[in-house]
Amino acid sequence: MTDKFYEKKTFTKEDYSEKNLANKEFDTCIFINCNFAKADLSNTTFIDCKFDACDLSMAKLVNTGLQTVSFINCKMLGVNFTRCKDFLLSFYFEKCTLDYANFFEKKMIKTTFKDCSIKEVEFSMANLTSSEFLNCDLSRSIFNQTILEKVDFRTAYNYSIDLEQNRVKKAKFSNSGIIGLLEKYQIVIE
What we know:
Blueprint: E1 5-7, E2 10-12, E3 25-27, E4 30-32, E5 45-47, E6 50-52, E7 65-72, E8 90-94, E9 112-114, E10 132-134, H1 179-182
Parallel strand pairs: 1-3, 2-4, 3-5, 4-6, 5-7, 6-7, 7-8, 8-9, 9-10
């Protein structure tokens, strides 16, 4: 990739692993089966883009813009979203593996996570207002001083959320998920 700006392009089976793709802009582009593992995407902007079956594990996202970006069937192990641009940050995740990712202090209002593995992910001090965790595994993910108002956890599982350390007003939980809200008390529910 030598150009700085790409619009309405489709990239298929490209290998960008460990490559420098910094300082580029992608508008309405589609990436299918591409490998971005450990790629440097710093100072790059993605607007209305879709990643399908891509590997973005450990990709570097320093000052990266993600504006209305969809990730479907993607492997995103250890991705650190904390240094992404906050301006117009908006994404959608479906059938993704986001284990060990970091969303510390990110404002992610109305974000959808659907059928995702979200194990050991850092959500401390993030704002997830009106987001959805639909059929997602949240094993050992951390919610601390997180805004979880109006978040839908009804089909999520394996979460542990301290109600005293997070804002959960009008969040939705299923009866089976109550255990994840009372875990810190070490009580037995039968």
